[in-house]
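Quick one: structure tokens for this chain, please?
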Amino acid sequence: MTDLINHLFFYSEDHCVPQCLETPEYNQAVCDLERDWSGFRASLTAEQDRRLEGLLSRQFTVKLTEEQAVFRSALSIGLTLGRL
């Protein structure tokens, strides 16, 4: 069952979520964030950049785990509602 849920999660991430994010506000926020990150990273030393990269990698792992938990919760709620 876990494999099925994982496949559904990654399918949703690849095919459903992008459609929900196709808004001018989201696109502008992403552009602004990327510009700010570029400026910030350009100001770091090599050591600071290496440490930041490690922290961002760990943060990405935590965020992915949280997103998977939210997806599983939503799927569980949907299945429960479908039984009503």
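Residues 2-82 form one domain.
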